[in-house]
Amino acid sequence: MSELTSMMNIGKEMANKLRAVGIESSEKLIEVGAKGAFLKLKQKYPNVCLVHLYTLEGAIHDTEYNRLSENTKKELKEFSDFLKK
């Protein structure tokens, strides 16, 4: 099992939050997916925001979150907006 902090965009604070919601490794994050992980985080930490979702997606794809494609960002924003309803 690989450490979460070995993934791009995942620092100590995010890794601690992910572990708190049962995502203990990079493999588990990939398995759950960015949206699934974000949903778990949102339930425990209501203040997580769209940037966190971008960060998770970037980590899974080994890409800096600010380099995600516009289509990916749009899809993730729609998902985040849907959760606010």
From TrEMBL:
Residues 2-78 form the TfoX C-terminal domain. Coiled coil: none annotated. Gene3D superfamilies: 5' to 3' exonuclease, C-terminal subdomain. It holds the Pfam family TfoX_C. This is TfoX C-terminal domain-containing protein.
